[in-house]
Write a structure and sequence with these properties.
The protein is mainly α. The chain has two domains: 35 residues, no CATH class; 146 residues, Nitrile Hydratase, Chain A (Alpha-Beta Complex), CATH 3.90.330.10. The chain is built from eleven helices and four strands; from the N terminus they run αααααββααααββαα. α3 crosses α4 and α4 packs across α5.
Length: 213
């Protein structure tokens, strides 16, 4: 599954092969683009830092927390996800067309991109490595319950699993169920509970520590 031999030109000498580590490939590409003047190094660093650290899944968590605490926003979010997310300023490249799907006691949603690795960067930051893997992309559709079980999420038999295939035209975001024991928490406190995995659908949002739920 991770055979990179076909990625290279037909060289027989190992020292001429591109390093198989994807991070080394990315660094080599960055260096080439900077060297040719096609990309400014400082600008590139700013973009990467933004998605890795300042954005990450925090924007998405704010969307979820707002939906948990504001029923009118929740309705707008489910009716016109792109517009509602735009109210919070979290649109942009790779996130222009959004669709939010809500988990309920009877339905659990799971997001995948079977074609490549389409992902809502403005709300979730950079996609995790496993999301881009061919194994996840194939198995999430064929055997979603098994995949969820491997992530540590055991669903009850009466819960329906719906798998949503993100594309270049639309990116999906899961609105997790609000856990019990959070009735007195602020929007910011709630946002801190929301994880990236819960917004992809491979996890549930855990109740805060000390909660009886």
């Amino acid at each position: 599954m991770h055979d990179h031999r076909h990625d290279h030109h037909h060289h027989d000498h190992d020292h001429q092969d591109v390093p198989p580590d994807i991070s080394l490939r990315v660094k080599a590409l960055e260096s080439l683009l900077v060297e040719k003047g096609m990309v400014d190094a400082a600008e590139l660093d700013e973009i990467v830092d933004s998605f890795e650290n300042r954005i990450g899944p925090r924007n998405g968590a704010q969307v979820v927390a707002r939906a948990w605490t504001d029923s009118a926003f929740r309705q707008r979010l489910l009716a016109d996800s792109t517009a509602a997310i735009g109210e919070l300023g979290y649109l942009g490249g790779q996130g222009e067309h959004m669709k939010v799907v809500a988990n309920t006691p009877a339905v659990h949603n799971l997001v995948v991109c079977t074609l490549c690795s389409c992902y809502p960067w403005p709300t979730l930051g950079l996609p995790p490595t496993w999301y881009k893997s061919s194994a996840y992309r194939a198995r999430a559709v064929i055997e979603p319950r098994d995949v969820l079980r491997e992530f540590g999420l055991q669903l009850e038999d009466n819960v329906e699993v719906r798998v949503w295939d993100s594309t270049a035209e639309v990116r999906y975001l899961v609105l997790p169920e609000r856990p019990g024991g959070t009735e007195d928490m602020t929007e910011e406190e709630l946002a801190a509970l929301v994880t990236r995995d819960a917004m992809i659908g491979v996890a549930r949002v855990a109740a805060p520590q000390g909660s009886d739920s």
